[in-house]
Amino acid sequence: MRNRVLVVGLDSAPPEIVFSPRHASRLKNFRHLMEGGIYSPLQSIIPPITIPAWACMFTGLTPGHLGIYGIRNRKDYSYEALQFATSHSLRAKTLWNALSDAGKSSLLIGVPPSYPPPMVRGNLISCFLTPDNPFSYTYPPELKEEIESRFARPYPTDVRDFRTENKSQLLQQIYDITEIHFQVLKYLLMEKEWDLAVFVEMGTDRIHHGFWKFFDETHPKFQPGNPFQNAIPDYYAFLDEKVGEILALLDEGTTVLIVSDHGAKRLDGGFCINEWLIKEGYLRLKREPKEVTRFSASLVDWAHTCAWGEGGYYARLYINLQSREPQGVVKPHEYESLCREIKQKLESEVDDRGRLLRNQAFLPHEIYPVVNGIPPDLILLPGDLYWRSIGSIGYSTLWTPENDTGPDDANHAMEGVFIAWGRGISPTLASPCLSITEVAGFIAPLLTVPFPGAIPL
Question: Which residues in the chain show pLDDT less than 70?
Answer without folding.
Answer: 1, 430-431, 454-457
